[in-house]
């Protein structure tokens, strides 16, 4: 059969004419994007079966009067009939190493490791909005829930580094041994299971600072026991790393855990030293006048002031905070007072007409929230990074993400050690 034109998977996915009753597995689109991005490196075989199956369905829709057997769909894939999604951040042609991106979020780990010459061969992220952002920037749809065996089955062999910013969860410590079985039912168990099966040369895990003292230290103790004793990795003492030490204008502490397979022979490791450069909010501040919607209403500002005053009477330091241009931000976090702890003063506003439904009027003190782009910069995402989602989703995604320069500096030391 002579295929008359190229088919853009991205255009097909977004098409209003995409049939609602198409019977395909939700992971098949992920498999097809992964197949296309790994067509020349041998990894595509792990995604081939589902990529062919979805290609057949798409071709059936495109050419309804033609018979499209699986063999023809495979031929179409090999001929390059299907175009990769356009992603801002493309992997280099001849990568130095391969890695997988678990709990991928919006790709902070991926940017860092691609900057070091790595090739991502598998990504997983269950949140649909984060998947949308990931796809826009990397041209790839992450697989879904990594706790599902059918998702784990896609993970290829022979990658070098496993990256995971997994959530912090309490362990049952059912057997009181603090070992592998005691982590069942948690997301760390799934990470550990993948490490056990795939035996990567190195692992790089990131978590909130609170992991160190979580459940009186039992959680971290169990994690280290599993990695060191059950899985046999050399794991130096975890390190609390602060974004502000790596050229970012944010006071954000996170715990980093790295590990090395016994076959690497690595038995010592030094985390990267802080950068000499220091940043302030002025370095990330929007250059143009910010939209009125980011400025607080007078009534909301009064509510915040009263809220802070009540807590101060109780001896608490909780409440909103205004970051001056010469200062660094508090950690950007999701929920609670995440945005209100990082208000700024910006007198460039020219239009005080409310653009959203607010109570009161727009304040005349120039007090506003930071924009999603400013949050992106606080995490070290370049301005070329695309934000295709609503502000609410963007704040959540950047608040949950990693500080890219801190990840990259640490990953660089990991790569040096495994001598690729």
Question: What does this 3D model show about the protein?
Answer:
α3 (48-62) crosses α4. This protein folds into three domains: 7-83, no CATH class; 97-274 and 403-418, Vaccinia Virus protein VP39 (Rossmann fold); 287-370, no CATH class. The strands form four sheets. A six-stranded mixed sheet has the order 4-3-5-6-9-7, covered by helices on one side. α5 links the parallel β3 and β4 (118-123). The chain has helices spanning 9-14, 26-37, 48-62, 70-78, 108-115, 128-138, 149-152, 187-198, 218-230, 298-313, 372-378, 391-400, 404-418, and strands at 7-8, 82-83, 97-102, 118-123, 161-164, 202-208, 239-242, 250-251, 253-260, 322-323, 329-330, 343-345, 367-368. It has 13 helices and 13 strands. The mean pLDDT is 91. The protein is of the alpha/beta class.
What is the CATH architecture annotation of the largest domain? 3-Layer(aba) Sandwich
CATH fold category name of the largest domain = Rossmann fold
Order of helices and strands: EHHHHEEHEHHEHEHEEEHEEEEHHH
Main beta sheet: 6 strands, mixed
Report strand order across the widest sheet: 4-3-5-6-9-7
Number of beta strands: 13
SS-based class: alpha/beta
Q: Compute the gyration radius: what is it?
A: 24 Å
The shape is globular
Percent of sequence in beta strands: 5-15%
CATH class of the largest domain: Alpha Beta
Mean pLDDT figure = 91
Uncertain residue ranges: none
Domains, number: 3
- What would you give as the CATH superfamily of the largest domain? Vaccinia Virus protein VP39
Cα(first) to Cα(last) distance is 44 Å
């Amino acid at each position: 059969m002579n295929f008359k034109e190229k088919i853009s998977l991205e255009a097909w996915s977004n098409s209003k004419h995409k049939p609602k009753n198409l019977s395909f597995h939700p992971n098949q689109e992920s498999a097809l994007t992964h197949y296309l991005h790994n067509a020349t490196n041998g990894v595509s075989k792990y995604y081939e079966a589902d990529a062919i199956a979805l290609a057949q369905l798409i071709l059936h829709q495109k050419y309804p009067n033609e018979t499209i057997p699986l063999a023809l769909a495979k031929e179409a894939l090999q001929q390059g009939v299907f175009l990769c999604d356009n992603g801002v951040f493309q992997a280099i042609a001849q990568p130095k190493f391969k890695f997988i991106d678990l709990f991928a979020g919006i790709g902070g780990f991926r940017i860092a490791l691609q900057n070091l010459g790595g090739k991502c061969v598998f990504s997983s992220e269950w949140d649909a909005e984060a998947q949308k952002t990931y796809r826009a920037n990397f041209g790839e749809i992450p697989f879904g829930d990594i706790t599902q065996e059918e998702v784990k089955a896609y993970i290829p062999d022979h990658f070098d580094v496993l990256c995971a910013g997994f959530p912090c969860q309490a362990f049952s410590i059912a057997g009181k041994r603090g070992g592998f079985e005691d982590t069942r039912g948690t997301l760390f168990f799934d990470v550990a299971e993948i490490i056990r099966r795939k035996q990567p040369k190195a692992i790089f895990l990131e978590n909130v600072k609170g992991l160190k003292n979580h459940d009186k230290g039992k959680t971290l103790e169990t994690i280290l026991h599993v990695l060191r004793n059950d899985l046999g990795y050399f794991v130096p003492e975890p390190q609390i790393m602060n974004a502000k030490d790596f050229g970012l204008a944010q006071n954000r502490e996170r715990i980093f855990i790295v590990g090395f397979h016994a076959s690497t022979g690595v038995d010592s490791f030094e985390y990267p030293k802080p950068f000499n450069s220091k940043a302030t909010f002025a370095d990330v501040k929007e250059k143009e006048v910010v939209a009125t919607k980011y400025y607080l209403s007078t009534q909301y500002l009064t509510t915040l002031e009263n809220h802070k005053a009540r807590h101060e009477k109780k001896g608490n330091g909780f409440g909103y905070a205004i970051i001056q241009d010469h200062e660094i931000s508090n950690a950007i976090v999701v929920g609670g007072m995440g945005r209100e702890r990082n208000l700024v003063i910006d007198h460039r506003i020219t239009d005080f007409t409310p653009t959203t439904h607010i109570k009161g009027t727009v304040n005349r003190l120039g007090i506003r929230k930071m924009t999603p782009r400013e949050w992106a910069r606080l995490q070290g995402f370049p301005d070329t990074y695309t934000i295709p989602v609503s502000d609410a989703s963007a704040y959540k995604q950047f608040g949950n993400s990693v500080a890219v320069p801190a990840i990259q500096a640490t990953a660089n030391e990991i790569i040096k050690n495994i001598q690729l």
